[in-house]
Amino acid sequence: MKIYQVKDYKEMSRKAANIISAQIIIKPNCVLGLATGSTPIGVYQQLVEWYQKGDLDFAEVKTINLDEYKGVAPDNKQSYHYFMNKNLFEKVNINPININIPNGLEEDSSVECARYNKIINNLGGIDMQLLGLGHNGHIGFNEPEGVFEIGTHCVALTQSTIEANSRLFEKDEIIPNYAYTMGIKSILQAKKILLLVSGEDKAEILMESLNGPVTPSVPASILQLHNDLTIVADEAALSVIKLRKPASIVMELEESC
Ligand code: GLP
User: Fold this and answer.
1) From ligand 1's centre to the CA of 44, what distance in Å?
2) 26, 135, 165, 192 — which has fewest CB within 10 A?
3) Cα–Cα distance between 172 and 19 in angstroms, integer?
4) How many angstroms separate the CA atoms of 32 and 127, rounded?
């Protein structure tokens, strides 16, 4: 595990964009596992900026997204399809056939999960998986449960996730209760994992994820077992870790800008 400590959201975004750019430059046809939420927006902005300057080329890059709301159409503003199109895909030269996101409109969960698992397998492995962190420790939409779900599955979102994500919906819009998400095994099979965390509201769960027991009740805790995990977190997100100073984690902290 390597933790880059950065000042704020802006620095986190720049550092993460640097790491992703290096991956694309080293392997132009790499498979990137992508995430949504507020956390990666700044990273995507930075990648777009570097693309526009001519420093990055997405022509051969393949992407696979973590999750999508069930029952939400790709052109719906709340869908993760729409989010990805607006924040990244429409702004770079990625080939649409290389973009993969769960199909929220497939009503039959077993059909969609099997389709998505097949895509993940056919891609031959994810080179770098980008992750955000939910307030309850969820990654993708792998919510706290009794067991780690291995493959793509349909998940009933917890009340706290529904509430956290409700800020992105208009007042009269129905917030979906279900989502399709890549499973824990697929995430862990990524060659590299890049976890981004920003803000004081994530400080406690970040500490628990990195220093607590590995348990499905804190899904992100499983990341402790990955052998190439990089975390980019800002000072606010690291505040609890820095206060309690667990020996195993403090050793991994690196100042960065
Ligand atoms: C959603 C997404 C996750 C994301 C999480 C955190 O639930 N499914 O992939 O990591 O939100 O979101 P935010 O970055 O907005 O805090």
Assistant:
1) 15
2) 26
3) 39
4) 6
Query: Is pLDDT above 50 for 257?
Result: no
pTM of the model: 0.96
Q: Which of 87, 136, 142, 165 is catalytic?
A: 136
Model confidence pLDDT, tens digit, residues 124-155: 999 999 999 999 999 999 999 999 999 999 99
**Alpha helices by DSSP H, the chain:** 9-26, 41-52, 80-87, 109-122, 159-165, 184-188, 203-211, 239-244, 247-250
Closest C-alpha to ligand 1, atom 10: 132
Domains by residue range for the chain, with CATH: 2-255 (3.40.50.1360)
Q: How far is the CA of 140 from the centre of ligand 1 (A)?
A: 7
Helices H, strands E: what count in the chain? Answer: 9, 11
Other C-beta atoms lying within 10 Å of the C-beta of residue 257: 9
